[in-house]
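Worked Example 4.2. Read the sequence first, then its structure tokens.
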Amino acid sequence: MIASLAVPVQQAVAAPANDMPFASATTVGLHNTYERGAFDYLAEALDTGTSLIEIDIWPNVFTGKWKVSHDEPLSNNNNCTTGSTLADLYTGSRNKHFGDCLHNIRVWLEAHPDSGPLMIKVEPKLGLATAFGMGVDQVDNLVRSRLGDRVFRPADLLAKPGGGWYDSLDDAAQAGNWPTREELAGRVLLHVVPGTVENRNPFDWAPTNEQYAEHLRDLAASGEIEDAQIFPTAKGTAGDDPRDQYDANIRPWFVVFDSGASGWLNRDTTWFAANNYLLVMTSAHAVAPAISSTNPTEAEARERLLLLAGANASVITSDWTQLPQIQSMVVPRGEQDETV
């Protein structure tokens, strides 16, 4: 039987709201936050003050709903629940759909309006199922219906302060058009990566992140960019600009980069920070000398955060579920300030 809790396990520890531009900070995130082995309920992950959560999804073409699990494509296995109040998020049955997970986040944010901003990393493990009505438009519609105006959209980055639009996300990022962390309090930025199963499928000719980049390009051209809800993510560390692996006409729509921290550490990353790109460094624990992926000491995790902040990370991720004092930290990007 699942134990029921009527109130949060602990009070939220929100990252400080301040006037630091969003792309000028380094924060900490959690890998596979939706797993019940990590937290009994998704809201407990948000209570840590984390700046990033990850949700893996699978398309169910029979129901038209997205399953949430690590490796069970036909069933839900997660810590998302249902309910419309904060107390509801810590009780009841779990193993819900992606839309329910998003609604959990919305309810939690409404109860903690000064929290965040929060990045949501979405991994469609098998990729999209466009032929079955589960493509980019449908995912956008789901996000919009569940999170509403809590989403910081690509259009919000593209909009010039005095009116008009930047030509691409690349232009907007290089112009420093990111809001401050204070302006993004209580809001989320979703970014999508190609799925691990999708990556191994030789018949998948259109990786999810490339489909989203094409989606943004086409919506911008048709004047409908405000419909888009998600940022595509450039994967890998190859070359001076990892976007060179993609077609030239979609490269300007990638301003979020994601790969293992060890791959970033031994290269010059100042270019990412100078252009105000978001650089997500995963498996922060694995950087030599490796520390625990789940339960390092606070001093070890803090030292690792400062090391990767100095390497221009925007967010570092691991499975440090028991360190809210680290999950809620915000430090200046590009600096190793031992006094923070």
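Now turn to a second chain, presented in exactly the same format:
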Amino acid sequence: MIAVEHLRKVFGRTEAVCDVSFRAEAGDVVGLLGPNGSGKTTIMRTLAGYFPPTSGRASVDGVDVGREPLRARERVGYLPENAVWYPDMRVRQFLEFCADVRHLRGATRRVRLAAVLEGCGLADVEHRLIGQLSKGYRQRLGIAQAVIHEPAVLILDEPTVGLDPRQVVEIRQLIRELRGRTTVLLSTHILSEVSSVCDRIVIINRGRLVVENTAAALVREQQRGERTLLRVDGPAAQVAAALRALAGVERVEHEAHDSGGARLLVSTAAGVPSAAALAAAVVNGGWGLLELRPLAMSLEDLYVRLVVPHEEPSRR
């Protein structure tokens, strides 16, 4: 498991991580989200034993990474975003080297080599040079080296970056297969990836924890009222004005169409007004109601709501 308690990491005058706390239980797959420069990679490198915390505490499998970094590394598998490869080594040769580094010997070594070659889909390319592998196969190899010693914690920094859609699906499936066998901390910018493979989400921004929970619970907590999509055969501005006049309507966004119709997004307090009231307002105005559909908040909506308002404006 992973335990981060009031973690702070400072580089010179830059505070990269400030008072961050979260947990991941054994077997969980946890998504670590945040914009570029938010502190995600610093947190991952700290957990992997590469950076000592400035203050606070971080532990993996019960081992404090600040006090016992070497012992902690024994329990961690790590795939950095920009992994460095030995292009002139063959796949099997490289994994044998990794097994040696992890002090795997005898039958255990043979069993683990066979397991990662098969489990990570590398059996067909085990004798190929790493320099000849596609990006997707190199990512598979990165996961293979990270799990060869059966770590308690697996840290993956942007494991699907730069992959084509088919390769992304394959890497996601590999990660799903690890669920329950090891605790996975996964950093990514692809929000659909988090929804499909992660049990919990940790959102970081400007070095600080924004929120931590399951995806479904986060959406429920952040859902402020209800949103309804309407398509109306009528003048957009007039329809929007009629809807804004209803009690409980907080916001109406609209756009006109060439046909003279309107597409409107209505935000209301929970349950007020009802869909029937929205429909009635349209019909009473003499307009045609073409579509009325409630919209659930997506993870993308949640991310924008939580992170974008707190981002600093870009400097030029």
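Notes for the reader: The two ends are 42 Å apart (CA to CA). Residues 106-119 form the longest helix (14 residues).
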